[in-house]
Each structure stands twice: as structure tokens, then as C-alpha cells.
Amino acid sequence: MPIYTNIEDLRRHYARRTPKMFYDYAESGSWTEQTFRENTSDFQHIHLKQRVAVDMAGRTTRSQMIGEDVAMPVALAPVGLTGMQSADGEIKAARAAEAFGVPYTLSTMSICSIEDVAEHTTKPFWFQVYTLKDDDFMRRLFERAKAANCSAIVVTVDLQVLGQRHKDIKNGLSAPPKLTARSIADMATKIPWGLEMLRTKRRSFGNIVGHAKGVSDPSSLSTWTAEAFDVSLDWKRIAQFKEWWGGKLIVKGIMAPEDARRAAEIGADAIIVSNHGGRQLDGAVSSIRMLPAIMDAVGDDVEVHLDSGIRSGQDVLKALALGAKGTYIGRAYTYGLGAAGEAGVTRALEIIHKELDVTMALCGETDVKNLGEHNLYVPRGFDDPTVKL
Ligand SMILES: Cc1cc2nc3c(=O)[nH]c(=O)nc-3n(C[C@H](O)[C@H](O)[C@H](O)COP(=O)(O)O)c2cc1C
Fold first, then answer.
1. Which residue range is the domain that position 297 belongs to?
2. What residues bind glyoxylate, as annotated (predicted)?
């Protein structure tokens, strides 16, 4: 394996190995991509407080997310079409997460099915559901997740309609990829990717094809979204999912203090402050900037997690120091997967872990659970999105 010292190294290698259609799918935001960009750049506005002459021996990044022990509070976020970034990608990512000791979240829009991932792992993983109109299909998804021993459901609430991603439309994104002169010409330059794909039977939406009724074109994400997703979603419906599922439930996609309160009121076990990695409402504030107001709104009433924009262990540290109990990475591990399969996901986790550990040490902290605002210099007005940074 090449020497990857940071997540950007993995991204560069991933870009070379993967067909443009799938690289663009991951490496993009909606419309102007402002939120996609600010998710990462806003982390840079926060500085770290260096401490010296502190005993740094015996450091630990061990913590808990929704009561589960984690080697570090960094879960793998649900990422659709992971199995198109690398053959059997969901299985590879889940195995890497399991070996590392962090939670893996399987997307509804995965290529490998829930059953497939369960068969190839030994510990419970988390399952992400989109909020679909079809009650039968939703109930069956919960039953399948239960049968697969999933320990939590992540309900994504920020995608009743799909944010327009220009590149996906131009590339004709689908799984399996449609064979056009352009896609064939591109794939011809991605031989190792293609050979791996030829060897697997998993090339379309494993949780949907053969399970959902009335889906005219399951290969197309946008068609399926428009047909099946519940535009009339409300909090009553989310509470109903909690009842149907009967286990731990995480609400993903919270960006307003009022919504955070509603999630706490319906008894969510955790919320994820997330703007879907800048893929939904372009122009939304970065999630790291929304975190302080959401922490103020919910206090200890619900566990708060964060994703969107994390590309390093330092970003993780900043989110934890601002109050998040856990974080997720989406693209950071997808780059690793596309660059080097399961070993690449492991490498992404190792990179983030090492950055978190060394940064903790240089900030004079030995326990990830003790991080707080005392470790940071947060610019005045950071928590007020009307203030230009
Ligand atoms: C390629 C890609 C596919 C995604 N698919 C899903 C999905 O199926 N379900 C979901 O809830 N979120 C999905 N997300 C959003 C992620 O779960 C997560 O919120 C986001 O990636 C975090 O931002 P980051 O990529 O900057 O870490 C996806 C993100 C990416 C990049």
C-alpha cells in the first residue's frame, strides 16, 4: 500500500482509481456547493490551545456512543452506493469498522443488503433508514434490521426531497452504471475497479431491489427518491418509527435548535447535527457552526453527535470539545475505501485516530471525555451565523 499520511492522500488516490460518476457522487454538494465547502473550512476558524509540561502518559480515546463502547467517538456515517466505490464496499467498510472498534452505519441505499453485511460481520452494526411512504416496506426494513441484529436505527430526516446535485445529473448516476460511450470510456481507464466489480454479484440496491413494490427504475437514485420518499414526514411519523423499531433510535439531519428539542421530546437516543455533508440544503450553515446553539437548546436531554466536514482527528477534537458526544465520517472513509478497499478504510480510521490522539496530547489532555471549550479558541460570533467569520 502507498504511504498515506492524511485523508487528502486517500482522496487523491481514490480519484485516480474510481469511475468519475462515483467519485463525483461522493465529492460534491448540492447546487453551488457553498455548504459543502464551508463544512470543512469552518473547522479552520477554531484554534487549539497548546499546553505544555502536562503528563501525557496513558492517553485514551475510548468513549461511548448511545451506550456502546467505542475505540474513539467516530462512527462511519451511512453512505449510499458504497458498493460502487469498491466492490462489496459496505462489507469491507463494516469489517474495517468492526476490527477498529467503531460503529458502522449501513445506508438504506447500500449495494450490499442488511443480510449480506450481517453475514460478513460478527458484531451489531447500525442501520440508517430513509423515511418512505410505504408502511409495509418500512416495517419490513425494521424487521430485517432486527433479524440482522442491528443495535440502532438512524432515521435520516433531511431528505424528503433530494437536493439537486448537478454532477450526478450530468453523469447520469445509476447503480449499476448505465453503459454509455462516456461511461465506458471512463471505466476503461479504471481497470482494477472494473475487474473487482466483475467478480461480485452485488451491483444494485441490495435493500430495495426485490423488496420494494412499484419502483419503476431502482437503478436511479433520483427516480426512486421522487417515487418512494415521504414528502409529508412529520414528528408524529418519526415517533411512530420509534415505536415500530422498539430499540435505540438516532435522528440524523438536525440543524435547528427547535428541531433538536422536538427530537429530544419524542425520546430520540441521540441526534446528529448534520446537513448531509452539504448535499441537501445548499446555503445551510456548516454543522460545526450550528453545534453550540443546538447544545444550548438540548443540554443533557439527548446525546448530541455531529457530522459534515470532518477530515481529520483535529476536526473530531473540535466537535467533541464543543460538546458533541460522538462524530461521524462520510467522505473520509469513502476515500479510503475507493483508494484501497477494506485496508483503505482501516487506514482512514488509523489516520483520524492518530491525529486525535496526538492533538489531545499537545492540548494537554489524556482522556477524550475531558475535552471541552477550555481546549479551544473559538472566534467571537462563531455561534451566530449572521456574523461573517
Ligand atoms: C456519497 C455519499 C452518500 C451518502 N449517502 C447517504 C445515505 O444514504 N443516507 C444518509 O443518511 N446520509 C448519506 N450521506 C450523508 C452522510 O451520512 C454524512 O451525513 C456526510 O457524509 C457527512 O459529511 P462528510 O462526508 O463531510 O463527512 C451520504 C454522503 C455521501 C458523501
1. 7-377
2. 25, 165, 276, 279
Alpha carbon 67 to chain centroid distance?
19
Task: Output the CA 76–ligand 1 centroid distance in Å.
Answer: 10
Please state whether beta strands 74-76 and 326-329 pair in parallel, antiparallel, or not at all (unpaired). Answer: parallel
Residue 355 in contact with residue 43, Cβ under 8 Å? no
* Total domain count, the chain: 1
Q: Measured between alpha carbons, how far is 308 from 223 in angstroms, rounded to an integer?
A: 25
CA–CA dist 22, 81 (Å, integer):
8
Give a yes or no: residue 191 inside a domain. yes
Please list the alpha-helical segments (H only) found in the chain.
7-17, 20-26, 34-41, 82-85, 89-100, 114-119, 135-147, 166-171, 181-187, 191-199, 221-228, 235-245, 257-265, 287-298, 313-321, 331-362
How confident is the model over 255-295, as pLDDT tens digits?
999 999 999 999 999 999 999 999 999 999 999 999 999 99
Distance CA 92, CA 85 (A): 11
Q: What is the DSSP letter of 53?
A: S
Beta bridge partners of 248: 152
Residue 382 in domain: no
Provide the grid cell at 226: 421522487
Q: Is 286 helix (H, G, I), strand (E, B) or coil?
A: coil
Of 88, 96, 66, give the one whose Cα is nearest residue 329: 96
188 Cα: distance to centroid of ligand 1 (angstroms) = 27
Q: List pLDDT tens digits, range 147-198.
A: 999 999 999 999 999 999 999 999 999 888 988 999 999 999 999 999 999 9
**87-133: pLDDT as tens digits:** 999 999 999 999 999 999 999 999 999 999 999 999 999 999 999 99
- Look at residue 335 and tell me if it is in a domain: yes
Q: Is 383 among the domain residues?
A: no
For ligand 1, which residues put their CB under 6 angstroms from it? 25-26, 39, 77-80, 107, 109, 128, 156, 252, 274, 276-277, 279, 307-310, 329-332, 334
pTM: 0.97
Question: Any idea what the CATH number is for the domain that residue 137 is in?
Answer: 3.20.20.70
Q: What is the mean pLDDT of residues 310-332?
A: 98
- For the chain, helix (H) and strand (E) counts, in that order, are 16, 12
